[in-house]
Amino acid sequence: MKILDNIYLPVVKDLEQFEQYFASILKTNIGLLDVVVRYLVSRKGKRIRPLLTFLTAGLVGKINERTHVGAAMVELLHTATLVHDDVVDEAKERRGLLSINARWNNKIAVLLGDFLLAKGLLVAIENKEFGFLEILSTAVKLMSEGELLQIQTTKAEEASEEKYFEIIHSKTASLISACCEIGCLSSTIDEKARTRIKEFGRLIGLAFQIRDDILDFTGKSNIIGKPIGNDLRERKITLPLIYALQNVNTKEAKSILTFLRKNKKKKEIKEIVEFVIKNNGIILAQHRAKELIEKAKQIILEFDDNPYRQSLISLADYIIEREK
Amino acid sequence: MKILDNIYLPVVKDLEQFEQYFASILKTNIGLLDVVVRYLVSRKGKRIRPLLTFLTAGLVGKINERTHVGAAMVELLHTATLVHDDVVDEAKERRGLLSINARWNNKIAVLLGDFLLAKGLLVAIENKEFGFLEILSTAVKLMSEGELLQIQTTKAEEASEEKYFEIIHSKTASLISACCEIGCLSSTIDEKARTRIKEFGRLIGLAFQIRDDILDFTGKSNIIGKPIGNDLRERKITLPLIYALQNVNTKEAKSILTFLRKNKKKKEIKEIVEFVIKNNGIILAQHRAKELIEKAKQIILEFDDNPYRQSLISLADYIIEREK
To answer: Theoretical Cys-Cys bridge with A281: which of A5, A244, B28, B317, CB 3.0 to 4.6 Å?
Structure first.
């Protein structure tokens, strides 16, 4: 995590404050809830989303209280969706620890997710940050729509690049873009900056998801915490497979899709993974992610230089280099 | 449903408009989501919550566009929690039709719930109804806290009346109270009226849950859609049981609680149901609900008479007379 350490440098103190604020927001007088929340807070992730909020705020202005409110909101909503995701995916692990549904049960996980969502709203309302609220509500709506669109697409077995980008825009890029937009909004009233920063967030968000989808083919299961080919088992058709299919004739493509539909076993999943690698699916998807990151960096480089700008550039690079 | 028909009378047109508005809010261009939403809308319930919003608005002023926005918000949030509830309870039916999780699956149900929540927020934001939003966010937070408190209490096997009321205040009365408060707020700026209407909502909300808990002992399973003794199987200690336990000596009470902890079978559940009936648990709980309703009606009777007032009085009576 050497690269990441450097990225965090300009906002180390802000992130420390963030942790305290985040934990204090989640204090309740219900014993059971407190235990679950403490477990959740202890299991903290890379905090990429609040990090983006702080860095974008620092890029265009001065980090202030509103930035902290925004950072807490994005992490509350993100955590809520993770907790719900683990229920719907029946995931047993998250960040190397048991998921809430595995450690407790589905009931507690769904309720905790709703509690976190409501808390996110209340933080916004208490601080009268209705602009942030609108941005995040739209993101939450898009996220659920994106996941539902993916399920629909999986059933129809569509394998179009266009549909893929529509899905990942909704389910991943919308929230990452929202984190950046909120950071920007917290420290400047410059509307042009806001539009550019929002677009930066969208681009790195798309690249983030493409990298995730690549890691599903290439990642070591013990690092990423999920077995390789998990998406294929769920019949999700992601960019590496889409590109590999474009590199073979229609007949072969059809037979691969039929094979995917019929098989879910380890050995057969491995065959599809090999098909994708052999037909340059990984290389092409990584290339596409890199293009998006380059475009994103161009946007950031138009702003005046400062330590936050450097971190945002490094973070953009990290997104497509990370192994987990 | 003769009684209910009369109650609806002053707001029949508003409720028709409500149905159109509600369906229009939920339109999306994602085919799968549209199918699920149409199913959800077709399965419409008694619409008690929007009904309360309209009636309270009419009681203190004139029903207007803001009332309609409020009514849509409360029904969106209520529907979201129902869809999530069915996931956590693994319920197969709702309103005589298959639940979303049973008809589709958990994944779609959780995502649909999140989508409905987000839509509720967006309706508020688009209409700049931040006051409504605060009321409802607090209610959603309380609802998840109340459910979690109930789980915690079930585990500790506490059987106190005080804890019971704390739980049902959070999990049920808070939203019903919010529906009334929003109705009032939409048509008057009178703060005193607001406080009284809010208290009215809290009281009928408590009575509503007590009646639900009574029906778990006495209801016919084919009407209420759940088998009798469902709460006991989940080891929920509700008011009828609490009162019955107060009517026996400590030793017997302890043995009943031990019996409950160990047994979940039909025959044994039946024994506990009989214990509760024999020791006047049902009669006393119904009496308590009636007291709450009388207090609630007193509050309403202090307002000037009009058709909405009469409906609210009848609705209050209906809440503790209903058989499902």
So the answer is: A244
